[in-house]
Amino acid sequence: MDRRQFLSRSLAAVSVAAMATPAMGRAAEEGNRMVIHIVLFKFMTTATSKAIDDLMAQVRALPKEIPGIVDVACGRNVSPRSQAYTHAITLRFRNRAALDAFYAHPAHLRLIRESIKPIVSELLPVDYEDTPTHP
Question: Does Transcription regulation count among this protein's keywords (predicted)?
């Protein structure tokens, strides 16, 4: 291949890449957006304050055991519109793959089995991707 063919093919490749980059960038961005996992809790009437506090402490400790958790917040609901959901947790994940890994992680499954199921009467989970506020 002579220099002119090389330059022509290189220019064509750069042009194709330049046209594909915005779409590819959006796809990559969507796959790497932060994901927020929120769970609202209603506890059984037999749940003790200590058991609820222990659950919240265990949730706060999850980032030490499960990779991909960026931040944890949890606590008692202070809204008068709570519909009997007394506590909430929010976990922020690096991306959807980290959330998927969390769902299958032994520490998460143990938390559900040992600390959530014995004291929770109802829960409401929500997962969503954090989307940019600008176009």
Answer: no
